[in-house]
Design a protein that fits this description.
heterodimer, A: 523 residues, six-stranded antiparallel beta sheet, B: 189 residues, mainly alpha, three-stranded antiparallel beta sheet, 43% helix, binds flavin-adenine dinucleotide, binds iron/sulfur cluster
Chain lengths: 523, 189
């Protein structure tokens, strides 16, 4: 276990959040001998504690602190208090992520150059190129044990995959397999192989799926250089007269306010909480919040173009058996404006259990059109559609004007409205998704609307110029040298791929940079 | 968001274990005055026509509970799911009405409104699902309807006893997952 650091130890790197970004950065820094304190708002559950039950696991793991929503998205109507489905626990959303681990395509780092100006979108090229990130993608894939990389075999295909694959073949799609998954197809790195239990979204009780909870964090703790302080909810980051950050204020498990000093602070609370903390840290020197000279903190919120297609067949599928998301069709992920939109999307297998299917198949739906769908649960196959959505300035996270949480911190409002490009892409994806299943005899198909956001991106985006974004190519804030952002909120654009591999690659790269800058006494 | 209402359904079965119901079916039908309706109401209880189960109400009128059960089925009709599961799914409204007067009003008034809209025989008196659904379409935006519907999403579909009726197998860790139990057993493709 990691050595506890004193509250007034001003030599430590404080990381806020222990998920994909924070947990990885913490371990990487600890491996280099740097003293790290990770402050995590949630509790620590070990993987044996996870529950194979959708609602019980939801209550155990989810971030359920009050949030509000606005804008034109359907989530604001169906789930007004739940804009995002993410985790509050040590390990963050890597506890219930599905494990799909894809690299961005090279052109996706150059969205503005590739797509050109898109009206109403706040597009920008990443200040990082695909070539620069490639060695870190290598490291991330090795660390996470991604199948189909490093000579790791793919996962076996389950029933849901077989239906997808048969449909893909019939339609002439060429790129369909059981995915690049951070799930062990064989025992590796002290973790066992996937047992096909089908509860990836509820936390993997076998530890077969990579999660910072039982991969990164224990390794970091073993060095004696990493302390993870659970149930420590950061409220605000403090700075000195020179504008450098000096530490953070947090509420401990008894709700008591504590102050942890720091040499460097890295924010990794996921894309709703990270900007919320920066905005809530406003001071007379930084009246609009920390690192916000561009006015971009909290803006450009992206959640991926998403949707699902479920289909009913005349014979059983039993999609709930086996790995939740081990199946992908990548043919539509290319940029091909002849389809009527810029960017592309992936099609990935997805299954929900009956309780979540009832909640998400058609939120608010009722009557026989709805229930005759559920009647055929056993004969259903399902896929998730995930594609690049457009960053828009007015989509974002703001502090609520009146409502506060139990610590007196303003709650976040999440505003989102689809861009016309998002809608055109979703309609195309629905059509193709339904065609995949119709090609193998689907009797009925269901174009299912987006769930509360699982991918939350862009609210502290990376930019070359300080006026366009919040952080530079290292995730270091343009305004404050010893303040970093280390999660998905750094994303300049979203790309078509699931984000976590990129978050992890960026965190590994950032650790190198922080270690070097600390060594050179720049920070 | 989780609901555990289903845990208390066991003690609503007692009539068929402790010597049978007190009233004959004929008497019940006469007393309830609801000949032809599916659910029977007697004293403070709602009972299934075959007397397989009965549910006492404590805060809501038993007639209200009977209509709620019908309403639940009309909102989420599954012909292979027995009434007792719908009864369990709406029982929470009776419990909540016991401590929350506003909730009691919401439910009692909502049901009274349904009966009024249905005319002489009341909501349960309408023989066809279509007739009842036509009324529900008129009120689907009301807090009453949304409260009942929203609650059902969890209280109906999160009953573990209901899952097998849909072919959902639930927890699998204790059985070793599906790696040796058919994760890839599809034959018909
Ligand atoms: C159901 C589901 C399935 C998914 N599947 C995939 C997939 O297959 N592939 C993929 O690439 N991605 C997937 N994702 C997305 C993935 O989980 C996230 O992209 C990733 O975990 C985000 O990393 P992060 O570091 O930004 O945030 P998180 O992993 O969410 O970590 C943030 C942490 O910060 C903590 N925190 C927040 N605020 C504070 C505060 N004020 N003080 C202290 N701590 C705080 C939170 O409690 C949390 O633990 C999935 C997500 C969900 C919900
Ligand atoms: S299907 Fe595999 S990865 Fe998913 S929870 Fe089960 S064992 Fe873990």
């Amino acid at each position: 276990m990691g050595a506890p650091y004193a509250l007034d130890d001003s030599g430590v790197v404080v990381i806020i959040g222990s998920g994909a970004g924070g947990g990885t950065l913490g371990n990487e820094l600890a491996q280099k001998g740097i003293d790290v304190v990770v402050l995590e708002a949630g509790k620590r559950h070990e993987f044996q504690d996870f529950i194979n039950d959708e609602w019980d696991a939801f209550s155990q793991l989810s971030w359920l602190d009050a949030r509000t929503t606005s804008g034109g998205w359907r989530v604001a109507k169906d789930f007004p208090g739940l804009p995002a489905w993410i985790v509050k626990a040590v390990g963050g959303s890597t506890i219930h992520w599905a494990g799909a681990s894809l690299r961005f395509q090279p052109h996706e780092f150059k969205a503005l150059t590739t797509y050109g100006q898109v009206a109403g979108a706040n597009l920008l090229d990443w200040p990082v190129t695909s070539e620069e990130l490639a060695p870190y993608y290598d490291k991330a894939e090795f660390k996470m044990g991604v199948t189909r990389t490093n000579e790791i075999a793919g996962l076996p295909g389950n029933n849901n995959y077989k239906v997808l694959k048969a449909g893909a073949d019939k339609l002439g799609y060429k790129n369909c397999h059981t995915g690049r998954m951070a799930i062990n197809s064989k025992e590796r790195d002290g973790r066992q192989a996937c047992q096909q239990t089908g509860f990836c979204f509820q936390g993997c009780k076998w530890g077969a799926k990579w999660s910072t909870l039982y991969s990164e964090i224990p390794k970091g703790e073993k060095t004696g250089k990493l302390e993870v302080r659970a149930e420590s909810h950061v409220l605000k980051i403090e700075h000195d007269a020179s504008g450098k950050v000096t530490g953070v204020v947090y509420a401990d498990k008894d709700g008591k306010t504590q102050r942890q000093k720091a040499r460097v602070v890295a924010v990794a609370g996921n894309s709703i909480e990270s900007p919320r903390i920066l905005l809530n840290s406003a001071s007379s020197m930084f009246p609009n919040g920390l690192a916000n000279s561009s006015g971009q903190v909290g803006r450009n919120y992206m959640r991926h173009m998403t949707g699902s297609v479920y289909a009913v067949f005349d014979k059983p599928v039993r999609m709930h058996r086996g790995t939740t998301m081990a199946g992908i069709i990548s043919d539509e992920s290319r940029h091909d404006p002849s389809r009527g939109f810029v960017g592309g999307y992936e099609m990935e297998t997805l299954s929900l259990g009956l309780p979540f299917m009832a909640a998400f198949l058609n939120p608010g739906g009722w009557g026989r059109s709805f229930t005759t769908g559920l009647d055929n649960y056993e004969k259903m196959a399902g896929m998730w559609l995930v594609g690049e959505d457009m960053p828009q300035e007015q989509n974002g996270v703001t502090l609520h004007k009146e409502k506060k949480d139990k610590y007196g911190m303003p709650i976040p409002n999440v505003a989102f409205t689809d861009h016309a490009n998002d809608i055109a892409m979703r309609n195309h994806a629905y059509k193709q998704g339904m065609a995949v299943y119709q090609a193998v005899g689907a009797i009925r198909t269901f174009p299912t609307p987006p769930y509360p956001s699982t991918h939350n991106l862009g609210t502290n985006r990376m930019s070359d110029k300080a006026r366009d974004g919040v952080v530079n190519k290292w995730g270091q804030t343009h305004d404050i040298k010893n303040l970093f952002v280390s999660d998905g909120s750094q994303f300049t654009t979203g790309a078509a791929e699931n984000p976590t591999l990129t978050i992890v690659a960026l965190a590994i790269r950032q650790a190198d940079y922080i270690a070097k800058a600390m060594g050179a006494k720049e920070i | 968001m989780s609901s555990h209402d289903h845990h208390d359904h066991d003690h609503h079965h007692h009539h068929d274990h402790d010597g049978g119901p007190r009233l004959s079916r004929r008497e019940l039908i006469q007393q309830s005055g609801l000949i032809g309706a599916a659910l029977l109401v007697s004293g403070s209880a709602v009972m299934s026509p075959d007397r397989a189960w009965a549910m006492e109400t404590t805060a809501l009128k038993p007639d209200t509970m009977a209509t709620l059960i019908q309403l639940a089925r009309d909102i989420y009709p599954h012909d292979h799911v027995a009434d007792k599961f719908y009864a369990v799914a709406v029982k929470g409204h009776d419990t909540k009405a016991g401590t929350d007067a506003a909730h009691k009003d919401l439910i009692e008034q909502g049901i009274a409104d349904l009966d009024k809209r249905a005319g002489a025989g009341g909501y349960r008196g309408l023989g066809w699902e279509e007739e009842r659904v036509a009324i529900l379409r008129q009120i689907e935006a009301t807090p009453f309807f949304q409260t009942v519907r929203g609650g059902l999403v969890v209280s109906l579909y999160n009953q573990k006893e209901v899952w097998p009726l849909f072919g959902y197998e639930g927890e699998s860790f204790s059985k070793g997952g599906y790696i040796k139990r058919g994760f890839d057993d599809i034959q018909w493709l």
